Amino acid sequence: MNYLNKTYYVLNKKPQLFDAADFNDKFVVLTKSGATLDNGTIHTDERIYACLSNDQLRFINIITAGSDSDVLFLIFWNDQEYADTLKQLKSKYPDIRFSNQDIKLNSYARAISAKQRDGININIVDAIVEDNYIECPSCGALNDKASGLPYCLDCGEDLY
Hints:
This protein has about 160 residues and is α+β, with helices and mostly antiparallel strands. It folds into 2 domains: about 5-115, PH-domain like (Roll); about 130-160, no CATH class. It contains 2 helices and 11 strands. It has helices at about 80-90, 105-115, and strands at about 5-10, 15, 20-25, 25-30, 35-45, 50-55, 60-65, 70-75, 95-100, 135, 140-145. The strands form 3 sheets. It has a 6-stranded mixed sheet with strand order 2-1-8-7-6-9. A 3-stranded antiparallel sheet has the order 3-4-5, covered by helices on one side. A two-stranded antiparallel sheet has the order 10-11. Strand 3 (about 20-25) and strand 4 form a beta hairpin.
């Protein structure tokens, strides 16, 4: 798949532009002008734990599995290129858990990666804030409005 607009791959706070991605059975290979990016080969067979995405930000976070878990970021400037890449990932790798998230997806992805490094597998849930819940401004946890509690049950932050 070729990209005409700015598309970034970020690992360890190091952004790299890429203009093509090759999705095959065991790898995703990201390239710029035909050359593979630094750490631009992503093993898909057993290394990807989950993919989190956000349609508003056009982000795809790839969380790797295992004791050296990390979060790889794909950032898109074009809506169609983002949608096409997400569709390609979902169709090519159906065994990977995909989840659409709210705008706090980066902190959620890092928390999942930290659990992976500790050897803990967690369930990933889609972020949907319903009218009867309030989202914590600090940690993103959903708290039931009916409880009347003025603080988050996860981190203690003031909700109002």
